Amino acid sequence: MWRYLGILVLAVFLGYGSNAMSQAACLENAAFWYSHVMMSSQPYYVKLQPGQEHIPKVLEQIGAPYTLVTPESEKTAYPQVRIHTNAWIPFVISEQFEAAADATKRVSFTAHYLAMFGIPLSMGDSFDIPGLPL
Predict the structure, then answer these.
(1) Closest CA relative to residue 27, chosen from 48, 63, 58
(2) pLDDT over threshold 50, residue 134
(3) Spatial CB neighbours of 5, under 8 Å, sequence gap ≥ 6
(4) Is the separation of the CB atoms in 23 and 51 below 8 Å?
(5) Chain-wide mean pLDDT for the chain?
(6) What is the 3-class SS of the chain, one letter each residue?
(7) Span 31-78, pLDDT tens digits
(8) Contact 105, 11 (CB under 8 A)
(9) Lower CB density within 10 Å: C or N end of the chain?
(10) Domain residue spans in the chain?
């Protein structure tokens, strides 16, 4: 029993280490897809949250046509995107892009990855479009 518990603890430890090593690659992959496929390389505004100072560097690396939201432009800068990284499960990372076309229209795109020590393996995408009939 102790052997299995030790293996489980090691797997969890390695999983979170893999997540830490893979976050930048997952963000770069998802941001490229969002910027160049979903937005068709059209410009958009990015609203940063505390601790997200690395996001502009990643967006510049992939050639994303973005502008950072300033307090003065926050109410008029559209389409506006917020980016969130979720890595709560070992070996799994989700990159979420919440976009607002204007003050009333919103859509959410989430890319899910199996994170293998710096290599993002896509597990699929999900979309949330409020008001879309099922």
Answers:
(1) 58
(2) no
(3) none
(4) no
(5) 88
(6) CHHHHHHHHHHHHHHHHHHHHHHHHHHHHHHHHHHHHHCCCCCEEECCCCCCCCHHHHHHHCCCCEEECCCCCCCCCCCEEEEEEEEEECCEEEEEEEEECCCCCEEEEEEEEEEECCEEEEEEEEEECCCCCC
(7) 998 888 888 888 999 999 888 999 999 999 999 999 999 888 888 888
(8) no
(9) C
(10) 2-128
